[in-house]
Amino acid sequence: RSNQSSDRHFITLMYERKEEMSFLSFSVLCVLFLIFQYSHVSFSSSSAVPQCHPDERSALLQFRNSLSIATSDSLQYLCSSFASISPWNKSSDCCMWSEVMCDRVTGHVIGLNLFCSGLQGTISSNSSLFLLRHLQFLSLSGNDFRGSSILPEFGQFKNMTELDLSAANFSGYVPLEISHLSKLVSLQLIEFNEQNIKIKVSAATFQALARNLTNLRELQLSNIDMSSLSSISFLNMSSSLTSLYLVSTKLRAELPENVFRLPRLQALELDANEELTGLFPNSNWSSALRVLDLSYTGFSIDLPHSLKNARSLSELSLSYCNFVGSHPTILSNLTPQIVSLNLAGNKFSGQIPWSSLNLKRVISLDFSFNNFTGQLPDVNSASRQSFSLFNASKYLLDRVPLSLTTLSLSHNFLSGKIPSWIYEIPYLQELDLGNNFFTGNVEIEKLSNLKELSTLDLSSNNLSLSFNNSINYTFDKLWELRLSSCSLSEFPHFFKSSKGLRTLDLSRNQIQGNVPKWLWEVGQNSLFQLNLSHNFFTYIEPLPWKELSILDLSFNLFSGPLPILSSPGLQVLLGSKNQFGGQIPTSFCNMSSLQVLDLSYNNLGGKVPQCLGNFSEYLTVLDLRRNRLHGTLPTTCAKGNSLRSLNLNDNRLEGPLPRSLAHCRSLEVLDLGNNLLNDTFPNWLESLPELRILVLRSNKFHGTIGNPRIKFSFPQLRIMDLSYNEFNGALPTKYFESFQAMMNAERVRMKYMGERYYQDSVLVTMKGLNVELVKIQTILTTIDLSSNNFTGKIPEVIEKLKSLKGLNFSHNMLNGTIPFTLGKLTNLEWLDLSSNELVGLIPSQLTDLPWIAFLNLSQNHLVGPIPQGKQFNTFSNDSFNDNLDLCGFPLSKMCNEDTDEQNSPSSTLEQKDDSDEANGFTWKVVALGYGCGFVFGISMGYFTFFSNGKASWILKWL
Length: 958
Description:
61 strands, 30-stranded mixed sheet
C-alpha cells in the first residue's frame, strides 16, 4: 500500500538537506527512495496485504512513549518546516504511520524516519527501539537525545543499509559495534554545533569501519572529534566509497595518496581540518572524482600539475590552504568540466591567467583574499562579433563565461576600471570586487541590468558611484549590498525596491543628516545586518526590523537617547564614538541573544543596569568605557556566563568589586581603570583561567597585594596595570613567579585579541606616554605598578618574565640596588624605575637589552658612571637626571678613572683595592654606611608607617 504522507515527508527531507550533500549523495538518496517507493507500489497491488506485526507496533509505541515531544530551539535552523510525528496508537496498522516503512512481503518494519520529529529524552540500552531487528533504514536526525551515548546496541541491526544519527545531541565515542553493520551503504553522523563537539571516533573504530563496511558508499562524519586518527587509519578504505565527508573533525594526520585513488570516489570533502596535511598523487587519480574540497586544511605549497589527471573534476575548493605561486598557470590544466573553482584565502600572486583559464562552463569563481595584481581584461562590448573576455583578437564569443553566477575577486591588488562585460553576464548573482584598487565611475543604471544580482560588494576601492535618486532602479533580488568607502556624500536610493535585503553596509563614507524613513520599508522582514558606521549621521528613529542581528552605528554624530530596538534576536550592537545621552534603557535586559554590546565614548549617565550581569548567557563583550556612569557595579554575574571582555574604564563607578566576577570563567579582559572603586587587591580573580588583561589603574585600591592562594595564579595574564592607586608593602614577588604567560616568549603566536565584530583595546603607559592600543597583540606583555606606595627591593625573580615588553615601577618608595638580572629581559622595550629610592650603580648588564628604546632612572640615589654602548648611547639626560652622583655620557659631568673602573663588567660592585685604599676609601666602608642607613631607614619607616597608618607621601599623576 502506498503511503503518500511518508513519501511527502521523505521528499521534503531530501530537499531540505540537499544543500549539505553533494550531487552524488543526493542522487543516492533519491535512488533509495525510488526503491522504497517501488516496493510500496508493488505491495499495494498485491491482493494479500500483510499488516504490522503486533510486537513491532508495541515496540514503536513504547519507544515513542519513552520520549517527550517538544520543539527544540537549537534545531529550528534545521527543522523549521517540520511538525512532530503523526498520531500513533495500538489499534492502527503501524505500516500506515507516516514515519514507518514496512516490507511488502513480510510486513516487518524495515524503515523508521523520525527526522525532526521533536523527540526529546535519553535512549537507554534496553530501549524498545532495538527490538526492531529488521530495520534497514533509520533516521533519528534533528531530535534532542540529551547527550545520550551512541549505544553498542545500534550494531544489532544486521540488515541496516542507511543510518542517520545527525544533529540529535548524542555524545561520547562512536561504538565499535557500528562496524558490525556489514550491509551499511550510508552512514551519516553530522553535528552542527562547531563550538561544542561532543562525539568522538577512535582510531580503532574508524579502522574497523573502513575494513568491515565493504558495501559503504557514503560516509559523512562532520563536526565530531577524530583527532586520534593517523595516516594508517585511511589505508584500508572501502573501494565501494563514492562519497567521503570528514568536515571539521579535528584531523591531524597526513592524508595518504591512496584516498585520492579510490576507484569509485566521486566526492571528497575534508574541509575545516586545519592540521590535516598531505600531498596530491602524481598519477592514477580516481577517474570518478567530481568534487574535491580541502578548504581550511594544512595542504600548502604550490598547486600540483597532477590535478590535470583528475579528468572528471567539476568542483574544486582549495580556499585558505596557504597555497603559493607567483603565476598559477596550472589553472590552465584544469578540466573543461570545472563548474566551481574556489582558491580564496591563499597566497597566489601575479596576474590572473585569464587567457589560459577554460571558463566556458564555469558557474562560480572565487579568487578573493590573495595577492593577485593587474587589471581585468576589457573589450569593446559594442562589437558583439569580436566580444571576448580574454583577448578580442584571438578568442570567440563562446569563451565568455555567460553561465557565471558568482564572481568574487575581493581583497587583492587588482586595479584599473571595471570592464563593461561585467554588466552583461545575464545570470550573475554575486559580484564581489571589494578591497582592491579599482578606479573610475560605476553607473548604477548599468548594474540594474543584472536582474539576478543578489550580492554586490564594491567596498574599499577608488570608485565613485553614479546614480540619480529620482530614478527608481530595480534590484528586486538584492539581499547583500556593501558600499563601504565609496565616497558617498548622500544616502543612495537605488536599492529602494530591495524588499528582501539582508545586509546593508554604507560605512566609511561622508553621508550626513538623518537616516531616511523609507529605509524602514527595505528588508522589513529580512534585514539581518546594518552598518552605518564612520559617517556623519545625526538622527535615527526607532528601528522596526524584527530579524536584525548586527547593528553598527559607531563613529557618527548621533545624540539623544539610544534608539529603541525591536529585534529580540539582536546579537551585536555597536554604538561607540557618538554623543548618545541619557541612561541605558532597561529594555536592554530583554535582549537575551546579545553577544557584543559596545556603547563606549558617549555621554551615557545613570547607573549600570543590574541586569547587565546576567541578562544574556551569550554576552561576550560589554564595553561602556568613557561615559558618565556612576554608582556601583552590578552585583550579580551569573554562573556559566560567556563574558570575555568587560571594559568600564573612565566612568565614575565606586564601591568594591563584586565577588561574582569570579564566575566569569571565560574572561580575558577586565578593564576598570579611571574610576572611584575602593577595595583591596582582588586576589580572588587569580583563578580565572583565561584572564589576559587586568587594568585597575587610577582608582582607590589599597593595602598589600600579598601572596597567591593557588599554585598557578593568573596563568594567562599578559598586561597588569595597577598604577595610580594606594597599594603598599613589598612588590608581589610570589605573583611574579606564577605569571606563566610572561615567561614563555617563544611560544606566543602573534595575533590580535578580539573577535569578528569587536577588537579589544587598552590604554597603557608605553615609553613614557599614555597610548591607546586599538588592537592588542597577544605578544604584548607589560607590568605597570607605578604611582603607588610600594617599598622594599626589586625582586630578582623578574628575570623569569622573558616575554616582558614593558616594566614600570616608577613613583614608589623602592630601595636597594637595580638587579643586574634585569639584563636578562631581552624582549624589554621600556623600563621606568624613576622616582624611587634606588641606590648604587647602574648595572652594565642593562646594555645587553637589544630592544630597549625608553629608559628612565631619574630621581633616585644612583651613583657612578653610566654604562656605555649599544642602546644606552641613544638615551638623553632625562633618563638619568636628579640622581646622587651619576657621571658620564649623556650627562655633562665627566667620570674620573676610578669611577670608570668601578663600572667595568668584571667589577660592577667590587672595586680594585689598591687605588681605592690609596685614597682612604673602601667599598667596605660604603657597605657599612649603607648598612647603617638601611637599619635606620627601616626603623624610621616602621615608626612612620605605624604611627600614621600609611606611607607619609604618595606622588600621583593627575
